[in-house]
Amino acid sequence: MQIKIDNASTRPIYQQIIDQIKRDIALGRLKAADKLPTVRQLAAQLVLNPNTISKAYRQLEQDGIIVTRPGAGAYVAELSSNLSKSVRKKLLCEQIELLVVEAVHMQIDARTLGEWFDGTAKKFKFTDSEE
Amino acid sequence: MQIKIDNASTRPIYQQIIDQIKRDIALGRLKAADKLPTVRQLAAQLVLNPNTISKAYRQLEQDGIIVTRPGAGAYVAELSSNLSKSVRKKLLCEQIELLVVEAVHMQIDARTLGEWFDGTAKKFKFTDSEE
Amino acid sequence: MQIKIDNASTRPIYQQIIDQIKRDIALGRLKAADKLPTVRQLAAQLVLNPNTISKAYRQLEQDGIIVTRPGAGAYVAELSSNLSKSVRKKLLCEQIELLVVEAVHMQIDARTLGEWFDGTAKKFKFTDSEE
Amino acid sequence: MQIKIDNASTRPIYQQIIDQIKRDIALGRLKAADKLPTVRQLAAQLVLNPNTISKAYRQLEQDGIIVTRPGAGAYVAELSSNLSKSVRKKLLCEQIELLVVEAVHMQIDARTLGEWFDGTAKKFKFTDSEE
DNA sequence: GTGGTCTAGACCACC
DNA sequence: GTGGTCTAGACCACA
Predict the structure, then answer these.
(1) pLDDT at residue D131 is higher than 60
(2) CATH class of D13-76
């Protein structure tokens, strides 16, 4: 696993770890049942305190993204969401709005933003539509 | 100006204020040269510590979104961006990635996300393309 | 707030704190928008490390049961559940099964268990049925 | 014997084994004097470390639920409980409280919870009342 | 050896 | 002053 910590970022370290693991899963680089590095391994590799890794893993587990078992390690879980669809829509649309507002203030026109959006989305492994 | 603080949100209050002012500008509800409420007015209206409002205004000024003239109040600035296009692309694409990763983990398919994105984008006043 | 820690219990301390706060809310002793003791206050009162209290509060926040704001403290949130109804049913029925199995092994007959159940349920403030 | 391990559960594996054996007994699928699989058999069947099975059996024996005769295997014991009725009541009522508190926070109304409780209880073989 | 819990103590962002 | 993050290090339950 390749994880890079940006110490200059205001984003907490544990959150950066979460971001990158979720990204790797969404990209298909990590698949369900794959084993994650142990807390101690990753802590040594990134030169961080094991508690920091632990916090990231705990959060990921709580979000149902990984499964951790004392004595066995941490594994990627099946994709799933306990949230009701309306809650998911609300959460995502809030994030979309922030993105769009930012784009407007950066004077990026709608077409360009749409292209960047499509270009980025193409790289990820979405769940198939259930039409 | 209508600003609503969501105390349940983990987003800091000063950030929520920033978000909503930027949103109102992007929606066209606030236009260049419009006068913003004074720090004291807004603090009284939202029942918040004036320091919190100050922090939001200071941040907005730093981002070139408003202009404060000491003694005369704060005004909406012209849209502009000092950032190079490549930096803007990088910043927005990072945000797009976080959004898409989140959508994948919520098992929202690409088409649905695209629809939500388009629906949201339509509400805002983008700068015209400079083709 | 009256919280009692049982050091003899195998249940982690932070979990005991969570249990009792959720209980107080369910009993109506704590109501939405009530202020909880600060992390440091409660840590001093229970002679525990502030991190332990912090962990309990963080978990409660993640479950949408309280709202914490740096600089402002922690407050009881409105009752709500982001979980879909089927997930809620599954979670509760698993817990019910464990309870019933335990009762059978303790040779408690069905009627007695039902009475204990009703007696306990009566003490709590359920959401009204939405028939 | 059909035992299923849910690796996604936070419940320890040895505890899941205990849960399911107790459940099978409470359902009447396993009866007093029935022979349980050997530690090795079960370990092979579930692809688990034999120590894990051992721990489960040891705990079940300690709780008086099974009897292991060295060299002869493990057998289901007669239902019995050394605990005084008041202790049993205390233990069960604690568990009932946790269940009810959870239900309140999930915004399940009392009637629905009661129905789920009755529906679940009906499936099990309670000891007859000793009125 | 694995992750989980708890303590102790430093530093920072928020209000 | 509030809670959040991170480090360091001890001890325990699980496999």
Answers:
(1) no
(2) mainly alpha
